[in-house]
């Protein structure tokens, strides 16, 4: 399940769950932008059914090992929202420390843009530009 808004972090690899069953992971991905907390999507090649691999510490450890081999340095993940889990997908919620790694891969933190806009409002910066934009918009509506 890849689309244009995804950043592919990893290609295919194999994992083994706590029961000793092997699973083929087709890849690990994230969305290319977000507001601070990143969900990490682990796509499986085949259905994992009701195995609850998002709770399997052996599976999560192997996923983290893969991410660390790609350059992530930081604390372990927890599972993501239960409603996001699927029969071919495990969603993990990355800690804030993951953001730096994700940014190096192309992820954009939209919360930083919001903080910049808020700072501009607090300091008065951007008032001239906002005023000019408002004037142009008003002229457009009058025309």
Annotate the secondary structure layout.
Blueprint: E1 6-10, E2 13-16, E3 22-31, E4 33-34, E5 39-44, H1 57-69, E6 78-79, E7 89-93, H2 98-104, E8 108-109, H3 110-123, H4 127-142
Parallel strand pairs: 4-8
Antiparallel strand pairs: 1-3, 2-3, 3-5, 5-7, 6-7
Which terms would index this structure?
two-stranded parallel sheet, elongated, 2 domains, 143 residues, 4 helices, alpha+beta, Alpha-Beta Plaits, single chain
Number of strands: 8
- Compute the separation of the termini in Å: 47 Å
What fraction of the residues are assigned to beta strands by DSSP? Answer: 25-35%
Low-confidence stretches are none
What is the CATH topology classification name of the largest domain? Alpha-Beta Plaits
Task: Tally the structural domains.
Answer: 2
CATH class category of the largest domain = Alpha Beta
Mean pLDDT: 86
* Alpha-carbon Rg, integer: 21 Å
The 3D shape can be described as elongated
- Helix proportion range: 25-40%
Element-by-element helix/strand order: EEEEEHEEHEHH
Major pleated sheet: 6 strands, antiparallel
Task: Specify the number of helices.
Answer: 4
Structural class: alpha+beta
Structure notes:
The chain is α+β, with helices and mostly antiparallel strands and 143 residues long. It folds into 2 domains: 6-106, Alpha-Beta Plaits, CATH 3.30.70; 110-143. The chain is built from 4 helices and 8 strands, in the order E-E-E-E-E-H-E-E-H-E-H-H. The chain has helices spanning 57-69, 98-104, 110-123, 127-142, and strands at residues 6-10, 13-16, 22-31, 33-34, 39-44, 78-79, 89-93, 108-109. Strands 1, 2, 3, 5, 6 and 7 form a 6-stranded antiparallel sheet that branches. The chain is elongated and about 70 Å long. The N and C termini lie far apart (47 Å). The mean pLDDT is 86.
